[in-house]
Design brief:
heterodimer; A: mainly alpha; Cytochrome C Oxidase, Chain A; globular; disordered N terminus; B: mainly alpha; Four Helix Bundle (Hemerythrin (Met), subunit A)
């Protein structure tokens, strides 16, 4: 996008005000918008790639028996699908949104540490190239599930595991630097008058997310390091013969892993908390309680990790502790859902695509939350553990939760990013196709799960055949629907109806006070916030 | 907040170093992975070459990036706000380092309090012991593993105690150097900083000597069961951090000799000093939990 400096009436500013051109612009940039765009495109490419791996899985599971791929390749697909979607699609998409929106929302010129920002981004393509390259090595790539439980990842893994380990290391470095950048930007770059309790909720949720990232990504680094030394250097952290314990791996992994799942949903809460008030034409109900609820969820996320491990044989007291803490999370989450509904109450609602995705988010994320509550209950988890019920649960919160909120955000802010309105008809097609297919895809999984179909297995008993066929049809429909999204975005970037500074009547926030597309450097001097 | 203190924002110009750094990290990760795989399979390969190419590029990147930063800082381009951003960024980085060590301390506590005890039949695990390794008795330090590997424990007297004293003293000398800088007393700064560097080097030398002692005399090795694992990973990662901290202090020493830093503008020195105190605190935790208890 070109600079719209003329619309800014601030001081004279020297050099880097106009966007440089050519490839070096993207390689050397320190601009939060450029970096945000690169993050978003990278995440979309990863989304399509990880999605095609999911389609390999669903094609194999269309019928019982083994027809398309051999089990080892199937395991690699489930593993790399998970890794790519978590670390390559959802997290970079949120970081991209933070890059684009946080400086604009708090009245900052850019991120606090712009060069480190570019470094964080450019590590990602290398990390994922290494991960994907390992698939082509002798013995195949990672095949132990994205959770890489020992001893699957140590004793029984292929040679290429070291590449997986080091690729996760540099992904982690990227995430930590990205998170430090966001948190410092929020603490230090707010415009005068932008007090903490005036920050938009997207900024608040990212503030807390960044804290979670800095706290737990190093723990993931520790976990992969121990896997590396166990596999290659003769240590026995996860080997009982040497005094270690495979269950210890799960404790360390999930101490990272549970905050990680909130890392992938808290920014969604912020997005939805921006969109629902805008299209209900009412201020957000219970702003302060939203902030406190987010903080409470983040705090509790450190106390619930072992609910992923109820079947490992932990002491009853520990199981009860983790069960109650987990159920407690439904209180702040309930506050949030209540507040979104209360925001809409008696609002004059209109249903543009961002609002449709936000509404779908509220309903479908809540379904995922309810199945999570069921999974939280220790005794019944013994039935659900490692079945398709779990798969249904976390795809409801991650696909119809996190991914839907990212789509909502994209539609909501596309006019600000590109200066054009997107094609509403096509976008509505995208929404309805996605909404229907995502439920065809994931809802029936609850039933096969309850009936006992295990996850991560390429074959299944005959009685699950019908439902698996429905699920696979839903999967291909959902995958194809995302191509509509690609078309809408490409069309919108290339042209379309001119977008005004504030295309949404009820929208609030500093990002709508600047022209669309937003100037290359949004604020050279701090705006006044009252 | 600092945002009110000035009216115009500073945004650094674009720079080639981040992408160079990303290439470096990519080569390091790819090369390290292949090095590990090749050494396990005992084959010759190009892993090490890639790894060292990556490391060389990383060193070039660090020189180039810091050179640019220092030049910009010396020419007065930086605002107070940017300085605050650096300080906060460094604090959060140290917090992330704390969490990295927390993972290994967590493994130590879990192994000691839960894994080994349960293998010995504690809690309701009598049958675990009975069925798996009936002759195994829980103990810490774990000098005989269930699988039968034996070793000797590392005591805390002698080298570890000297090293503890050295690092704690070095934290104070580092602080005296910082005070000297803030008071504008360059001689005090140089002397105490030099002493800190020497103490850091002595620590590293003694740590190396301790590893030799452990391997040759005690039979305490990286693969000596979970006691040796936690011992070497915790002290090893700490030693790597001390190495990095010492290198940072040496860079600071050269910058001080060149006349850099003023009493109110010395973020790099302050960050190095924080880092040094951090590795010191980690060592105290190590000394207590790995050596004494």
């Amino acid at each position: 996008m070109s600079s719209a400096a003329g619309t800014m009436d601030h001081h004279d500013h020297d050099h880097h005000h106009h966007a440089p051109s050519g490839i070096t612009r993207w390689l050397f940039t320190t601009n939060h918008k450029d970096i945000g765009s690169m993050y978003l495109w990278f995440s979309f490419i990863m989304f399509l790639l990880g999605g095609s791996m999911a389609l390999v899985i669903r094609a194999e599971l269309f019928q019982p028996g083994l027809q398309l791929v051999d089990p080892h390749f199937f395991n690699q697909m489930t593993t790399v699908h998970g890794l790519i979607m978590v670390f390559g699609a959802v997290m970079p998409a949120f970081t991209g949104l933070a890059n684009w929106m946080v400086p604009m929302m708090i009245g900052a010129p850019d991120m606090a540490l712009p060069r480190m920002n570019n470094w964080s981004f450019w590590i990602l393509p290398f990390a994922f190239a290494i991960l994907l390259a390992s698939l082509f090595m002798e013995g195949g790539g990672p095949a132990f599930g994205w959770t890489f439980y020992a001893p699957l990842s140590t004793t029984y893994s292929s040679d290429s595991t070291a590449l997986f380990v080091f690729s996760v290391h540099i992904m982690g470095i990227s995430s930590i630097m990205g998170a430090i950048n966001v948190i410092v930007t929020i603490m230090n770059m707010r415009a005068p008058g932008m007090t903490y309790m005036k920050m938009p909720l997207f900024v608040w949720t990212w503030f807390i997310t960044a804290f979670l990232l800095i706290a737990v990504m190093p723990v993931l680094a520790g976990a992969v390091t121990m896997v590396l030394t166990d596999k290659y250097f003769g240590t026995s952290f996860f080997d009982a013969a040497g005094g270690g314990d495979p269950v210890m791996f799960q404790h360390i992994f999930w101490f990272f892993g549970h905050p990680e799942v909130y890392i992938m949903i808290l920014p969604s809460f912020g997005i939805v908390s921006a969109i629902i008030p805008a299209f209900s034409r009412k201020p957000l109900f219970g702003y302060a309680s939203m902030v406190y609820a987010t903080a409470a969820i983040a705090g509790l996320s450190f106390l619930v990790w072992a609910h992923h491990m109820f079947t490992t044989g932990m002491p009853v007291a520990a199981a009860l502790f983790f069960m109650y803490c987990t159920m407690l999370i439904s209180v702040p989450t309930g506050v949030k859902v209540f507040n979104w509904v209360a925001t809409m109450w008696r609002g004059s609602i209109s249903f543009e695509t961002p609002m449709l995705f936000a509404l779908a988010f509220v309903i479908l994320f809540t379904i995922g939350g309810f199945s999570g509550l069921m999974l939280a209950i220790t005794p019944v988890d013994f039935q659900y553990h490692d079945t398709y019920f779990v798969v249904a649960h976390f795809h409801y919160v991650l696909v119809s939760g996190a991914i839907f909120s990212i789509m909502a955000a994209a539609y909501y802010w596309l006019p600000k990013w590109t200066g054009h309105m997107y094609n509403e008809t096509l976008a509505k097609w995208h929404f309805w196709c996605s909404l229907i297919s995502v439920n065809v895809l994931f809802f029936p999984m609850h039933f096969v799960g309850l009936a006992g179909m295990p996850r991560r297995i390429p074959d299944y008993a005959l009685q699950f055949a019908d439902i698996n066929q429905i699920v696979s049809i839903g999967a291909f429909a959902f995958g194809l629907s995302q191509l509509i999204f690609l078309a809408v975005v490409v069309k919108c970037v290339r042209g379309g109806e001119k977008a005004p500074a504030k295309p949404w009547e009820g929208a609030t926030g500093l990002e709508w006070t600047v022209p669309s597309p937003a100037p290359y450097h949004t604020f050279d001097t701090p705006p006044e916030v009252k | 907040m600092a945002a009110q203190q000035h009216e115009k924002y500073y945004v650094p110009a674009s720079s080639p170093w981040p992408i160079v750094g990303a290439v470096a990290l990519g080569l390091i990760a790819f090369g390290a992975g292949h090095t590990v795989i090749e050494s396990k399979n005992q084959v010759d390969g190009w892993g090490t070459t890639v790894l060292f190419t990556g490391l060389a590029i990383l060193v070039v990147m660090l020189f180039g990036w810091f050179r640019d930063q220092i030049n910009e800082s010396m020419s007065g381009l930086y605002s107070n706000q940017l300085s605050a951003s650096y300080r906060q960024g460094m604090s959060w980085f140290i917090f992330s380092e704390v969490m990295f060590f927390a993972a290994f301390f967590g493994a130590l506590f879990y192994a000691r309090v839960i894994a080994v005890e349960w293998l010995g039949g504690a809690s309701n695990n009598a049958m675990t012991n009975e069925v798996l390794w009936p002759h195994f008795e829980a103990m810490w330090p774990l000098t005989e593993t269930p699988g039968g590997t034996t070793t000797q424990a590392m005591g805390w007297m002698g080298l570890p105690l000297y090293n503890t004293i050295i690092l704690i003293v070095s934290s104070f000398t580092c602080h005296f150097a910082h005070v000297g800088l803030e008071k504008g007393n360059r001689t005090q700064l140089k002397v105490w900083l030099g002493i800190t560097i020497v103490l850091g080097c002595i620590f590293l030398y003694l740590q190396g000597a301790e590893y030799v002692h452990a391997y040759q005399d005690l039979g305490l090795k990286l693969d000596s069961g979970v006691y040796g694992n936690t011992f070497y990973l915790l002290t090893g990662f700490h030693g790597m951090h001390v190495t990095l901290g010492t290198l940072m202090l040496i860079v600071m020493f050269f910058r001080v000799m060149k006349g850099h830093f003023t009493h109110d503008n010395h973020f790099a020195f302050q960050a190095t000093s924080w880092y040094w105190h951090f590795v010191d605190v980690v060592w105290v935790c190590l000394f207590i939990f790995v050596y004494i208890l």
